[in-house]
Specification:
By secondary structure, the chain is mainly β. Helix content is 5%, strand content 37%.
Length: 502
């Protein structure tokens, strides 16, 4: 909701430093080395399991490549006075952003969620348009704000804060809408909210529940949100709680993060007993290479990133600060699943933190969304087969003088480097140790025969399996003779992992 409608206690709390004490020294979710579980290729012996490694515990990251836009990068049009609380997604070579504003042409007269897109976090961004406004009835009759988006399959889910009126007295609640393009939205759950204030403790701050951020991970939707009535919130209402469910609507199978980890709860209003960071309006993302959550929240000098391991039992890294001015919570640049973009040069050791955040005030409302960012190195990542997912699509030297490419968690051993480079999102100069623990799906020798489907799609025939590579140019690079096959023959081939990763 707009700051001019929030209580003074909430406004003052926005400058608090998130403070969460380090937890126990034993963490079930830390990387300790697990055997690979992928099926072996024919005539291939099992690779060795990853070596055991010490859990990451408050490692200090090195920072470089600090960056900042020259000024405002996205803003509303018409009579939009305020612009804040962006959700930022990198998808299809574009940066897409949704944020909270208010445009008189978008009725009813209340907060609206606007949309714009551009080639990078610095823009230039397209002219803003309203994509979700108050419903005129239900919990979000007047206001829709604080968007957070994930994409599951071909469907986008937007989690947003709704309120039926200005002076709502703990009336803010979380709703969800779905879309196939991120522009045209349908309210889910019958237009009803999915998370409301728990009412554990009523405080002077009467904001309620909202300011949510979602991540899609291992089939679960993780939802972090503010609840000023939560039991574990600061007396000013600051606190971030976490629910998860395999149902994007959180209508069943809900688990809440408590002192003993995630436990099933009968509803999303179960008492909120544990906050992961003392803050308002936070965003977060999952760092695959390091098995870590990164929570971005506003502190005195900018945006602080606080880290948790997967089970919320340890801080794997010391906090990181993205300095600079701010007037409202940040939005992290994330993948459609809410994950950190993988660095194409150092996927196991470097992570990029880019945020959009309001930097100024118009009247009493935040505006002037600008881009800030930096890189952090020293992750010491890719130590388990799970973390090796960050290597998907990367080519690297192999121990037998060929080029190995990771495809869907398996190794494709390609004789000709030029063929691997055709698909690779990056070519590494050295081989991460974890690669030796991945199963070899197939070897791709030069001159392997190619099958050509009736529609012209080409696949390399490797034993009784087919590696669909798409254009004929790949077969040419591999010096593969091309043989037309019937649709029935093409369909009979067992498929190897799809290499079309770029």
């Amino acid at each position: 909701m707009p700051l001019n409608r929030r209580s003074p206690a909430l406004l003052a709390a926005l400058a608090l430093v998130g403070a969460v004490a380090a937890c126990t020294s034993t963490a079930a979710g830390d990387p300790i080395g697990t055997p690979a579980t992928l099926a072996p290729a024919a005539a291939q012996s099992d690779p060795p399991p990853p070596p055991a490694v010490a859990p990451r515990n408050n490692l200090k990251l090195a920072l470089d490549k600090g960056r900042q836009s020259a000024g405002t990068v996205v803003a509303g049009v018409e009579d939009a006075v305020y612009n804040y609380a962006p959700a930022v997604m990198v998808e299809g070579g574009k940066v897409r952003t949704w944020w909270c504003s208010q445009m008189g042409s978008a009725q009813p007269n209340g907060d609206d969620i606007l949309y714009s897109e551009g080639p990078s976090a610095d823009g230039p961004f397209s002219t803003a348009r309203a994509v979700l406004s108050g419903s005129g009835g239900s919990f979000d009759a007047m206001h829709t704000c604080d968007p957070s988006l994930i994409k599951i399959g071909d469907t986008y889910y937007m989690y947003y804060t709704g309120a039926s009126r200005d002076n709502h007295a703990n009336g803010s609640a979380v709703g969800v809408a779905s879309s196939k393009d991120g522009l045209s939205w349908n309210r889910e759950n019958g237009g009803r909210s999915i998370v409301v204030p728990a009412g554990d403790t009523l405080r002077d701050n009467t904001y309620g529940a909202g300011q949510q951020s979602a991540i899609y991970l291992d089939g679960w939707v993780y939802l972090m949100f503010t609840d000023t009535t939560g039991l574990a919130s600061h007396p000013n209402g600051a606190g971030q709680y976490v629910l998860r469910s395999r149902d994007p609507l959180f209508s069943k199978g809900v688990e809440a993060l408590g002192e003993k980890g995630f436990t099933p709860v009968p509803s999303t209003t179960t008492p909120r007993t544990r906050s992961v960071v003392e803050a308002f309006s936070s965003d977060w993302m999952w760092i695959e290479a390091a098995s870590a959550f990164a929570i971005a929240h506003s502190t005195d000098d900018g945006t602080t990133i606080t880290f948790w391991n997967k089970d919320f039992t340890r801080h794997p890294f010391e906090p990181v600060l993205i300095p600079g001015p701010w007037k409202e919570g940040p939005g992290l640049l994330r993948t459609p699943q809410g994950h950190a973009p993988v660095d194409t040069g150092e996927p196991c050791d470097r992570v990029q933190f880019d945020v959009l955040r309001a930097t100024g005030v118009s009247g009493s409302a935040p505006t002037g969304i600008a881009h800030f960012g930096l890189d952090a190195t020293g992750l010491k990542g890719c130590t388990t087969t799970e973390e090796a997912k960050a290597l998907d699509g990367f080519a690297m030297p192999s121990p037998v003088r060929t080029t190995d490419m990771v495809v869907s968690g398996k190794i494709m051993r390609v004789e000709r480097r030029s063929v691997a480079e055709k698909f690779a999102r990056g070519v590494l100069g050295s081989r991460p140790k974890i690669a030796d623990s991945l199963k070899i799906a197939a070897e791709v020798p030069a001159g392997a025969p190619a099958a050509v489907a009736p529609d012209g799609v080409v696949g390399l025939v490797l034993g009784d399996k087919l590696w669909v590579v798409g254009p004929p140019a790949v077969a040419t690079l591999n010096s593969s003779p091309m043989n037309p096959v019937t649709a029935e023959q093409w369909a009979r081939y067992q498929r190897l992992p799809d290499p079309a990763l770029r």
